[in-house]
Amino acid sequence: MRYPLFYFIMLLTSLFTVSCKSTHSNTHNTSASSRSLAEAEPRPAWLAGDHHIHGKYSARWDWSTTPPTPILRGDAQYATALYAQMARHHNLSWMVTTDHGGPGHSSVNLEHAYPELVASRKATPEVLQFYGMEFDTPGARHCSLIIPYSETEAEQLFRLESQFNRREIEPDTASRDTDEFMLKALRAMQEEQKPPILIVNHPARLAEKLSSFKKVTPQKLRKWQDTAPDVVIGMEGAPGHQANALNPDGSTRESGLRGGYNDFPTMGGFDQMTAVVGGVWDSLLSEGRRWWITATSDSHMHYTEGRTDFWPGEYSKTYVFARKQYDDIMQAMREGKMFATTGDLIDSLSVKVSNKKGQAADIGETIEIKSGETSSIEIKFRDPDALNFGRQNPSVERVDVIIGMINSDVAATPSPVVHRFTSKDWYVDGQFRTIKMDIEAVKHAQYVRIRGTNNKNELEPQIDTAGEDPWADLWFYSNPVFISVK
Predict the structure, then answer these.
(1) Is residue 402 within 8 Å of residue 418, measured between CB atoms?
(2) Is the CB of residue 154 less than 8 Å from the CB of residue 20?
(3) Where is the signal peptide, in residue numbers (predicted)?
(4) Phi-psi region of 151 (alpha: psi -120 to 50; beta: other; left: phi over 0)
(5) Which fold has domain 349-485?
(6) Residue 212 forms beta bridges with which residues?
(7) Topology alike, domains 6-345 and 349-485
(8) C-alpha angle with apex 382: 380 to 388, nearest 5 degrees?
(9) Domain range list for the chain
(10) Would you call the peptide bond into 248 cis, given omega within 30 degrees of 0 as the criterion?
(11) Per-residue DSSP letters for 248-311?
(12) What is the largest CA-CA distance in the chain?
């Protein structure tokens, strides 16, 4: 088994289970060590995290009672404290608890899940632990709802979940399961004093073929962000359940599909909305939208126990360039200072675009270029010389630069891969690799994004076949840098 300490750690979680009252006025304060840790790291750095994790409060329900009774550990197994320990073990700096909702689940979160989160924060202060839920989205599927860290975070989630979560009023959800009710929910979130963040989970999981979307469509994504631009910031580029093709002993399972995408599969482990160049993501970016992507575990239960999941950080990581502070991480997420990677292919990335004045912008930022001038791009990434948690040391074999036009007739053309770089094209400085190129005669507003892979055989990420080993097909994606033209 890959984790011989796992069951020992499970026993340890009992030490961190704290009985708390349902009132929260005295349960919010973090430990002094957590505050000291944040104060000791004032400079921004790449911080790995996971915003989609299910624990024991992702319940199933006993429908024989009125109201229905939650059956804890019904859909997911583990305590928050265990997840925090495993997040730390897999080198995460932050995580978000995102349990499913259900009939009256807002009270389950308020009275039980939140006190457990507070106890876990004290037990593992090295990992910043956000409060949230997997929002059962009206008229659609699921989103990660991330609540800002505050003294009123428990009440904020209770208010939003009880008033707007689709499944809160099961079994008769018809009045909430509409597109208009979703817009109503988003307007309320946008008006919060400290607005939450909403990230669309596994957006194309129900697609039966390429560019054929159900429930979650590009049109809905646009409406959601237009309604709540401070709330709706993007989508899972790489969904969870990536261990769906693995048996408990780590061998591949012939029928298993990565991500649980049973109709139209993932591509290189990424959702088609992200993976297809010139597809949904590029379409949104070509409108000038700040639409970001992430990677998550969607962990319910580890594959070594017969389910489909990796631990948080074991396979997928979302890196955020921020100070190790709750507010700073959320702000960096809103600004798109993120990249997504699988298999620890890289752990640091810069995509710096500069103008003739020497001004520069990096991931999530905007640089102004004078019309007709040449801009320069410097890509710098770290390919760690170390084993990942699949006990492999993968190498980046290729980096692709993708450039798309914004609000221009040129945007009707699929965003091209303008250059593919291999090891012969980059400079090596220890574990860092540096690539340089120019964009000549810039005349249109545009964006630059990159991706990289250890896969020597695929110029474009191909459909993931059943039984494919996720460790053999790794990719990373940057969020874009925007170029404005004056």
Answers:
(1) yes
(2) no
(3) 1-20
(4) alpha
(5) Immunoglobulin-like (2.60.40)
(6) 209
(7) no
(8) 155
(9) 6-345, 349-485
(10) no
(11) TTS-B-TT--GGG--SSPPBTTB-HHHHSTTSHHHHHHHTT---EEEE---BSSBGGGTSSBPP
(12) 70
Strand, helix or coil for residue 7:
helix
| Model confidence, pTM | 0.91
DSSP labels, 197-259 = EEEE-STTTT-SBTTB-SSS-HHHHHHHHHH-TTTEEEEEEE-S-GGGGB-TTS-B-TT--GG
What is the fold, at CATH topology level, of the domain defined by 6-345? Answer: TIM Barrel (3.20.20)
CA 463 to mean position of chain CA atoms: 21
Instruction: For residue 326, give the amino acid letter.
Output: Y
